[in-house]
Design a protein that fits this description.
Layout: E1 12-14, H1 23-29, H2 40-50, E2 57-68, E3 73-77, E4 82-86, E5 100-107, H3 111-121, H4 125-157, E6 160-161, H5 178-182, E7 193-194, E8 200-201, E9 205-213
Antiparallel strand pairs: 1-2, 2-3, 2-5, 3-4, 5-9, 6-9, 7-8
């Protein structure tokens, strides 16, 4: 937690995001090219078990912009006379047309991760692997809910939306800045913690910023894959 900033601004909580996951979606998310028919049966079993366990949730708020420079954006905290400055670096260019931004943290939660760890401890490595892939799909579905919030706000205002921006994932926005992005959101309400290295736990948790404004042409939150710091190795590109 960054000292000097109180997590005191207005926020909204999504305590149990409803998602539907199909077998085909899980199969599509499995990286590499291999015979997948052999794992359909265990995948069905894993999906039946996982859907009773997963509990994705999110916390978010809308923030007005005080200032944008070439590499920083300063956001006003609505319930106090203070602000926070983020340093997206190169990726600040995606925020240049913003009138307001959606700041959010969403998580798969610890429940499914703990279940997967128990499978691994019992040497059910295939089940643990499939459960991990299912978790990634569920996390992406939770992210869709956040992206839809931004798209709906933009639509109501007759505006457009920026790409999806997350510290440590896009070019120029270092993971250290995740501490600042998370500092004004009550992470404890969704069971998330951030450590001194700015890493979120549970592991499948993501912080993000999405801008809306009249200068954006897109009505859909886009991908920043082309400037992503992991674009050459990511197995989830454009997923």
């Amino acid at each position: 937690m960054v000292m000097g900033i109180t997590p005191n601004c207005s926020f909204e909580l999504l305590s149990n995001i409803e998602v539907d996951v199909s077998i085909d979606e899980v199969l599509e998310a499995i990286p590499g090219k291999r015979p997948l028919k052999k794992i359909v049966a265990p995948l069905e079993q894993s999906l039946m078990a996982a859907c009773k366990i997963w509990c994705p949730r999110a916390v978010y708020c809308w923030l007005d912009i005080k200032q944008i420079t070439a590499e920083t954006i300063t956001l006003a905290l609505p319930s106090e006379e203070r602000s926070v400055t983020l340093n997206p670096g190169f990726s600040t260019r995606f925020l240049a047309k913003a009138e307001t931004v959606l700041a959010a943290v969403y998580t798969l939660g610890s429940e499914l991760e703990e279940y997967g760890a128990s499978l691994s401890a019992n040497r059910d490595f295939l089940g643990a692997y499939i459960t991990d892939i299912i978790g990634l799909v569920v996390l992406d579905k939770a992210g869709e809910k956040i992206r839809t919030l931004a798209e709906n706000r933009a639509k109501a205002l007759g505006w457009g939306v920026s790409p999806f921006l997350s510290p440590g994932s896009v070019h120029g926005w270092e993971i250290d800045d995740q501490s600042f992005l998370c500092s004004f959101l009550p992470l404890e309400t969704i069971g998330v913690k951030i450590n001194k290295d700015a890493i979120l736990t549970p592991f499948k948790s993501i912080s993000c910023l999405i801008a809306v404004g009249p200068g954006y042409a897109s009505s859909r939150v886009g991908s920043t894959c082309e400037v992503c710091s992991k674009k050459d190795t990511c197995t989830m590109r454009n997923h």
